Amino acid sequence: MLAYTLFVLFAGGLQALAARVQVTWDVGYLNISRDGLSKWRAIGANGQLPIPPIYISQGDILELTAINHLDKPLSLHAHGLFQRNSTFYDGVGMATECGIPPGAQFTYIIETRDQCGTFWIHAHYGTEGIDGLRTALIIHDQDPQLLDEYDEDVLLTLEDWGHEPYDDHIKMLQTIAEVDMPPNHPTVLINGINANFSQPIRFSPGRRYRLRVISMSFTYWFKVRLPGHTMQVIEADGISSRPSAVDGLDLCPGQRYSVIITAKESLEFNYALNVTFYNDFIVDIPGLTTLYHHVPIVYHDNAPVKTYPVIEDHKVKWADELAMEPRDELMLLEPVDHHIVRSVKALPKDLGVPIYAFGNYSYAPVPVLPLFTALTTGNLALLPSTYAPQLNAIILQHNHIVELELRNPDSVIVHTFHSHGHAFQVVESGPVHKNSSIPIKRFKGRQPMRRDTITLALGQYVKVRIQADNPGVWFQHCHQEQHNLSGLGFTLIEAPDVMQRTLRVPSEMIEFCRMLGHSTQGNSAGRAGSDMTGIEKPIAISGSANSISDTV
């Protein structure tokens, strides 16, 4: 359900018409078969799946009201939105909110004055997102120059869809080794339906199409190509880029791209948009773990489909953030005030997903939200000892420039990294180990590209930079659901002294915490100073011989 209220927005001395867009999600369980293969209790909004995409324009204020008819708490995260001055609306359960209790409702306020592009919204308390509660969020750019570069806007959402509630899937995963193939691997949904029945996209000769591709995935990767056509990348994760020609897109869970495709001048042939569904961390069985789908690109109903020879992946020019440049020409952030190394570490188990860590401890929620700890402990909020070890808290000073070096040395599998509250500059990637043949790559243009989600390849590091100009509590984590739930995350506590002066948490959120039995003040244990009495002992994970100690 959507409602619009117009208001006048003054920005940069110019008067623009913007809207207050009101969307209501009545969140509940649905017994549904989205892929035609299995019917199970999924989670939807307003009695439907897929949930319709939300379209707004830059400058609009989105008011998203969630009514929780589940039997557990609920929270919603606008993936890629910075939530400046409103970290409490970021939607991370037990980090920035305690969740909406069953039977209650809450309205998230999402301002878009300084952002536009391709985003999505998903639940972020437990497994509600992978169970269905996710949709696209498109914030239309108002820049006339950009709008003049294409004629039509086309959305392509890509999802991994399981065959049972993910909590049940997790129980199954505990019975096999992680690298083995799950007996009930997910299927693919394209624009909300089984990819085997993908609806055609119609092209008209000579027209320019902006194709927005969103990986609304929690586990698998996607590759997208349109043989016979060139893609001009113009956006990655909500950051506009200078146009650059590529052959295809390789998207990890959570990533987004916009590309401009110019249609052929002839109606002689139709074409196939190729979508490959894959994952590097389980045994590859073509047709089962790697799936190949095609979206019809139709120029004429009676035209034959033109075929092309298969090109090996290493010969394809894939979109690469290190080869892209932002349209706004933001220069490399320097000098660096802090260089922080975080290595993926794993505590293997004979069966099931390992316990993971982005640091020395596996991430786990604590009784008091780190947001409340930052807001209620005065000068002690500046001390890491005020936060429980399992938060892996890093305290950042306001406006400092930080370089994060994210390493994946010995965890056996590839990971992803998603940053809340920031789009980071991607500066460099290379091998963790000195004797590796993996090349070192630095950004090629005049300014490094920014985005909020990247792949951490096995045996490699990625260096990214941010400026701590967004006071708040920001979760940083792997976007593969089972790894996120297994502790692969850490917390940025950004300028807590500024937060205490400027942030005012909505009273409903404080009351929700009390309803759910959580304290709203004190350190992570609800006590004074560094007294963590009553908190569960954190799971410590040491590095292997080849990993690098975490340093701040």
Give the neighbour order of strands across the main sheet. Answer: 12-11-10-14-19-16-17
Structural class call reads mainly beta
| Radius of gyration over all CA atoms, rounded | 23 Å
What is the average of the pLDDT values?
A: 92
SS element count, helices = 6
Question: How many angstroms separate the termini?
Answer: 46 Å
Biggest sheet layout: 7 strands, mixed
How would you describe the shape?
globular
Describe the protein.
- The chain is mainly beta.
- The chain is built from 6 helices and 33 strands.
- It has a 7-stranded mixed sheet with strand order 12-11-10-14-19-16-17, with no helix packed on it.
- The termini are far apart.
- The C terminus is likely disordered.
Key terms for this structure?
7-stranded mixed beta sheet; 552 residues; 38% strand; single chain; 6 helices; mainly beta
